[in-house]
Amino acid sequence: MSLTGGNRNDVTQLLPLLAKVPSVAGLVGRPHRRPDVVLGGRGYDHDKYRRLVWALGIKPVIARRGTPHGSGLGVHRWVVERTIAWLHGFRRLRVRWERRDDIHEAFLGLATCLITHRHVQRLC
After folding, report:
1. pTM for the complete prediction?
2. How far is CA 4 from CA 45, 91, 96, in A?
3. Which has more confidence, 39 or 59?
C-alpha cells in the first residue's frame, strides 16, 4: 500500500490495496492469495471498481448509494471506524507532522503495538 495525500479518494487505492494482501495460511494446501469477499461503504459504489474487483475473483459487497441503511455492513464497518479512532488517540497520528512517510509508518506501527499491548493486558 502506498501513502497518498489526504485529499485523494479512497476508492482509487482499492486495487493497490488488494494487490498487497499477503497470503493467508490455513488448511493444508496452497494458501489463499486473495480474500473471497471485500466489504465496502457507499464511497466505493462505482461500477468500474465493482467490475475490476470481480475480475480479480473477489466478490464485492458494497453498499449502494441512495438505498436505505440496514444492509448489515455497518456491523463490520464499526470495527474499522473504532480502530481508526484508537489510532487517532495518538496525537502524532491524528495530524501528520512528519514529511517522510517511513517515519509516519514507524509511528503507526508503534501505535499498533501499544494498542495491542493494552488489550492483551486487559485479558490477563
Report:
1. 0.59
2. 21, 20, 12
3. 59
